[in-house]
Structure formats: structure tokens, C-alpha cells
Amino acid sequence: MDCTIVKIGGSIIDSPEQLQRFLQDFASISGAKILVHGGGVMASRLQKALGQQPVMVDGRRVTDEQALKAVVMVYAGWCGKNIVAGLQSLGCSAIGVSGADADLIRAVRRAPVPVDYGYVGDITPESINTDFLTLLLRAGITPVFCAVTHDGCGQLLNTNADTVASCLAAALAQTGHISLTYCFEKDGVLYDKDDDSSVIPEISSGMYRSLRSEGRIAAGMIPKLDNAFAALRNGVSEITVTHARSLLSGKGTKIIL
After folding, report:
1. Which of 18, 20, 109, 181 has the most crowded Cβ, counting Cβ within 10 A?
2. What is the mean pLDDT of residues 89-104?
3. What is the DSSP string of 163-178?
4. pLDDT confidence bin for 229, thresholds 50/70/90
């Protein structure tokens, strides 16, 4: 089964106008499609409102018990359902899901060394319940995944949304042509993070290693690209990193092996 998978994150989710425009473009994509959303900006704001201080290491959130509650409230609650409601208004039959729903994504809690990330779950393409996911897609339903997973023993876990998108794409890659697009508030991967016009049109794995060693790629872009290359190695057909407004344009940074 051919499928388009899009991950939306960054400040786009926090802007009603930009989110609405993105959802209009996403809803217009024909065929089977999946939307994966983050919500880190909103989750950090809720943490602060609750008296918590968000902690990030290499672009990944350290998730203690209180942070996990905030993450679940935002990702699986307001953020996800707001997106689903928006898609329904555009005639796109969508369902908001976490990894715990129908055992769609079962994760393993990350080991506490070298960094203790707390209630963070690691997943692989084998973690995906492709049978049920395919049933949804064949029924014409668009799954909207948040970044909450579970361990099968009753514990919810926070999993990087870029990883969720990558593993969903890789799990479905054996069934057909899978296109994965990472959308956020920049026009692509930047050579100079302070220069929005410095978009790199194409990045290979070797080029990525060099740019990362030079410090040109850091923070949240690291897990995004790590996951992009992992998806390519697992048979995903094409991957692009681009601005949410460019979802349908083909612009952005192409990721190649």
C-alpha cells in the first residue's frame, strides 16, 4: 500500500493560522496518509505553568513523572484532538491515536545510561502494529499519531515524534511506496541556523556527519535527521525536510543515503 506520512512540529502547531493552512494542504493529499504531530512548544509552556522546568538533552525531552503528565495532556489531549477536529472540518476522516491505542506502538523504556531521560520509550519499525494500522488506512481513515507510546505493562512513555514518523514509514515500507515529510517552521535544513536563506537542497549521510561534527546541525535537528536516515535504510522511498507551507511544493531539503 502506497502511503504519505507527514510529521508536523515546531511552532506551526502553536499558530492557529499556520496550522489551518497546513491542515488544508495535508487534507488535499490523495490516497492513504498518516499525520504525526509533536507539540513540544506547547508542552514546555504547560510544564512552566505547572511550575516545572523543561529539560532537553540533544533535542530530546527529559521526562520525569510530572513532565510525562504534561506531555500526555498536551500530545494525546488538546493538541491531537484540535488537529483531528480541524481535519474533520476539511472532509478528512481522521482518528487521533497514541501508541497505547489498539497497541499501535509498543515501546521499551530507555536505559538510564549515559543519560537518564526518565519515562522515554524507544521504538523500532517492529514496534508498529501494522495489521491494525493497515485496516485503518484501507478503511479510508487517516490516523493522527501523537508521540505517546506504552510498554505493554500499563506504563505510558514519551517517544520522540520524529522517531514515531520514521518507524511508521519503515514499518510500512515493505507494502509499497512510502513518502515521509518532516514539516516545521524553517524552509529545510539550514547550513547556517541564523540564516533562513541557507537551505541545503540535499543531504547525504556523509555530509550530515560532517555538518554535525562542525556544529552546524544541532539540537532538535539531530533526532530528525538521525530518524530520516534510519527510515531510508529501512526502505522508505523518499524523505524531505521542509516548511509546513511548502508541503505540496516539493521544496526543502531532500535526504539521501
Report:
1. 181
2. 98
3. HHHHHHHHHHGGGS-E
4. very high
Please state whether the predicted TM-score (pTM) of the whole model is above 0.85: yes
The CATH number covering residue 155 comes to 3.40.1160.10
**β-bridge partners, 57:** 60
Q: Give the rounded percent of residues in the chain with a pLDDT score beyond 90.
A: 91
| Domain housing 138 | 3-255
The answer for residues whose C-beta is within 8 angstroms of residue 101's C-beta and 6 or more apart is: none
Q: How far apart are CA 241 and CA 250, in angstroms?
A: 10
- The DSSP code sequence of the chain is --EEEEEE-GGGGG-HHHHHHHHHHHHT--SSEEEEE--HHHHHHHHHHTT----EETTEE-B-HHHHHHHHIIIIIIIHHHHHHHHHHTT--EEEE-TTGGG-BB-EEPPSSS---BSBEE--GGGB-HHHHHHHHHTT-EEEE-SEEE-SSS-EEE--HHHHHHHHHHHHGGGS-EEEEEEESSSS-BSSTT-TT-B-SEE-HHHHHHHHHTTSS-TTHHHHHHHHHHHHHTT--EEEEEEGGGTTT--SEEE--
Q: How far apart are CA 100 and CA 97, in angstroms?
A: 8
pLDDT at 60: 82
Asked if residue 252 lies in contact with residue 240, where contact means CB atoms within 8 angstroms, the answer is yes
Q: Which residue has the cell 514515531?
A: 164
Is the pLDDT score of 55 beyond 90?
A: yes
